[in-house]
Fold:
Amino acid sequence: MRLAIYNFGLHVGPYDSAEVEGFRLREAANLAGRPSTVVSVGARDNAGGRAPCLGGTRVSPAVSGPVVSTPDAPSFTWGLDSVSVNAFSCGGLRRRQKKPARHWNVKQQWPPLVRVENGRLPDWEDGVARLERLHDHGPSPAAFHFKQAYDPAGAAYVIDRAVVRALVDKNSAGQADLLASVKTMPV
Structure:
């Protein structure tokens, strides 16, 4: 069973603008650090159109408003279990990128991510539909987040934070050089 996370945010300016420079600089390190984790990770597609590893045309969720006036930044992360995906998403390079995100992204009134557990790699439309479902109806086995998780059979469960923390530490050891370079980047 694969577990995927669809993330969605809106930048405060165009992708190549000074307002988004900190994000842009960190993105290369974030992508470079993905192979040193225990999960496989989907590609971010800031240019629009199709992502190289995902099917379908990239679309924006309705929860972001009827017209997306600023560039969006969707991405997928996927792995084989909740612990490894949680460790990637909440630790190491990803954490260093998310921490100053308030400088680059519009404050949102919708969920920043949705977990999708469906046994296959989802496409962009599936991620958007699940994010909208989470926004409109709250967590369920079809669309949920880290605070309220469900297993493949649909039963609610709590993610073991100690196991996640140990995996974050293991991933961070493999990303030490990249983590050090990110610390020196401007916000």
Q: What stands out?
A: The mean pLDDT is 77. DSSP finds six helices and six strands in the chain.
